[in-house]
Amino acid sequence: MKLRMVRRIMGSVPVFLLLAIGSAAAQQYPAKPVRFVVAYPAGGVNDIVARVIGQRMTAALGQPWIVDNRPGRGGSIGHDFVAKAPGDGYTLVHGGMGSLTLGPFLGKLPYDTLRDFAPITLTARAPNVIAVHPSLPVKSVKELIALAKARPGVINYATPGVGSTPHLTAALFVTMANVKMVHIPYKGGAPAATDVAAGQVPVGFGPIPSLLPHIASGRLRGLAVTALQRSPLMPDTPTVSEAGLPGFEMSPWFGVLAPAGTPQEVIAKLNGELVRILRLPDVASQLAAQGVDAAHSTPEEFLAVVRSDLQKWGKVIREAGITGE
User: Side by side, which strands form the sheet with 156-159?
Assistant: First the structure.
């Protein structure tokens, strides 16, 4: 009986008054600390970017942004926590491309990327780099492709693991170049980089921060970065697209998302503050030092990236026959 009365009362409230109530709530937001979930271990790139953003948002909005690391199962534990949280703007996730657009094709997830999240903005992109040991007689992407075609199924390449963004980078490379190479998966970027630098595996696909120290020391030769633009950390290194495979791109991203159902007024307020912060030169410099490029977007642009990547990488994963470990 009481529920019926509430429904009748709400049904009689003018639409403009409901909108005014929502606007007032957005103006008061945030009225308490915001939990900023990172679905990966502390100290990783996702975590570092989140902490840079969290510090600035704390100062901008006057409420603490508390970074809450919830790693495990390839990031699915943390993302699932946020997917099931109330849509009130007080629980957000610094999401990663791997968990949101690759993970759905590598195993069963407890959340649906498109249904359970409301994108707010991209925050950063972290391109990979293709590097080779100096003992391999190639100095360019074109030479690597030519050698791989001359030796089908002979050349090994290392990545941080099955289903990782470097693995998908390599899968796309193999497909677009029409070559056969052998994948050697590792449990993380550091051990993969170490073995490539030691010559145990001749080719490495990995994050720039993992391979750059070995490239700078001369233990590895950097052939190309995987974004469409050159990296500020490696300005003299061409992109894969420039170096022989036009249109090639793998530029892993991070972004802030809320649970589905979060009020649009809150989404808009968060987007405005986050984009303003991500445009600051000193924030861009902090992120560049970690090997990532600052990025920003509207919620609609971010959603378009998610939809596009689900289609693109789903096709790559299916055609390459990649399954989760």
Answer: 182-185, 156-159, 203-207, 128-132, 221-225
pLDDT on residue 309: 96
- Smallest CA-to-CA distance from 310 within 97, 13, 136 is with 97
* pLDDT tens figures, 93-131: 999 999 999 999 999 999 999 999 999 999 999 999 999
Give the predicted TM-score (pTM) of the model: 0.86
State the first-to-last Cα distance of the chain, in angstroms, to the nearest integer: 53
How far apart CA 136 and CA 150 sit, in angstroms, is 13
* Torsion sign (Cα): 45, 50, 53, 54: negative
C-alpha separations of 319 from 39, 180, 269 in Å: 28, 14, 41
The domains located in the chain, with CATH, are: 32-126+252-320 (3.40.190.150), 128-243 (3.40.190.10)
- Structure confidence by residue, pLDDT tens digits, 200-236: 999 999 999 889 999 999 999 999 999 999 998 899 9
Q: What are phi and psi of 111, to 5 degrees?
A: -140, 165
> Residue 294 phi/psi, 5° resolution?
-60, 140
